[in-house]
Amino acid sequence: MPLAASLPALLPLLLSVPAIPTSSGVPGRALEREGNLALDAPAALPEDGPTTASDAGDSEFRAYWKNGLRLETRDKRVKLTFGGRFHNDWTWQRADDGPGEIGSVDEFEDGVQFRRARIEMGGQFDGWIDWYAAYDFADAGIAEFRDAYLAYRRPGYRIRLGQFKQPFSLEWQTSSNAITFMERGFLNQTIVRRGTGVMVHSDGSNERMTWGIGWFREGDDQSLDESAGEYTFTGRVTGAPHLTNGGESVVHLGGGASFRGQDEAAIRLQFEQGLADPSIDTGATPLMVEDGLLLGLEAAWKDGPLSAQAEVITQRFRADTGRDPEEIAWYAFLSWFVTPGDERTYDTSWGRFGKVAPARPLGQDGGRGAVELALRVSSVSFENVATLPQSSDALHAVTLGVNWYQTYNARLMFNYVVGEQDELRGLYQALGVRLQLFF
């Protein structure tokens, strides 16, 4: 395609702009946080801080701990970070299984799994080239990269090359270590997810606005699979019309769009619990389409310990024959920290929410950590999907969540999910517990 062929010629022009000078001689502002690893350049180390094996020369590394192991040369030209995340889930689930009920179509079994088990690495070279890689061991017998990319920091914008999250959806951009519930809402099962490609995005210097646009070759990290070799153009923009004290109080608004060139699409959706079987599944008969257009809106409000968040998407595919398949999905949730001084954090550099640091961590000065209560309602529905094996084409769910943040790096999550499926009687119910550790 013409645009794809022109990308190699554009990259040298994008990268030819000189770096931003700073008083320290290190160009620009460090890369925004990605995954667990905060790649931001750390503040100057105190005189009585971390020690080094040798004080001879700027090329010697010094090591220190800041929510993960970090290494940097004394001249700060090379920085390395090492981390990981481990999410161990326990699930008890059931569904009414009489004639015409949910459990008569799908089998729901109790179980234990590692939802995520990742080793992560990142770093920076010469103050303007960043890299990040995350390797996941959670799938039985399969280990694979989740993210692996290089990023170049230019004046006013950034360029990212490799495999990474496409710029779409507030909940998707929020790290799995920081999402309020064990699983994201229905809409995040069918939107664009990760892809291999190139993205240009804002540098984080404007606290009230972010943007990103990219060209990707899709992978299989999604529940609406695309045929191999197809391409996607995805973009997102966010704004914070109200923002005080770096995010203590914030109103967040945003939107995204994605054009997906594809030949076929297969739909698989499950209730919002990791061990639930797919309840909507086109099976071995995918949708035969020419392309698809995905649109999304997002909004959030936060004021101290209280917050609210909502998103809605619409997705339409141009069918080869017959009527065009369509999807509408949405969620909305409320969150409240009952412990004094605790709240969600807002990341102004990427227009998303960050990880929670308890005001009184467990075991420190008699602290008991932070406790959060949350309630979510979500729904997804399809129209004109003739390949679904049954007439039911919509899922609805309510999730009650309790999160205990013991420290910045450890969290215990409890979710109770109640769901229903159109055209089927009865309820799906699940109790989920997650032990979460990251560094």
How many domains? The number is 1
Distance, first to last CA = 42 Å
Structural class: mainly beta
- What is the CATH H-level superfamily? Porin
Name of the CATH class: Mainly Beta
Number of strands: 23
Question: Mind explaining what this structure looks like?
Answer:
- The chain has 439 residues and is mainly beta.
- It has one domain (2-47, 66-438): Porin, CATH 2.40.160.10.
- 4% of the residues lie in helices and 52% in strands.
- It has 2 helices and 23 strands.
- The protein has helices at 2-15, 170-173, and strands spanning 61-65, 69-73, 78-95, 111-125, 129-136, 144-154, 157-165, 194-202, 209-218, 224-226, 231-244, 249-261, 264-270, 278-281, 287-303, 306-319, 326-337, 345-347, 352-354, 370-383, 394-405, 410-421, 428-438.
- The strands form 2 sheets. The chain has a 16-stranded antiparallel beta barrel.
- β15 (287-303) and β16 form a beta hairpin.
- It starts with a helix and ends with a strand.
Quick take:
The protein has helices spanning about 1-15, 170-175; strands at about 60-65, 70-75, 80-95, 110-125, 130-135, 145-155, 155-165, 195-200, 210-220, 225, 230-245, 250-260, 265-270, 280, 285-305, 305-320, 325-335, 345, 350-355, 370-385, 395-405, 410-420, 430-439.
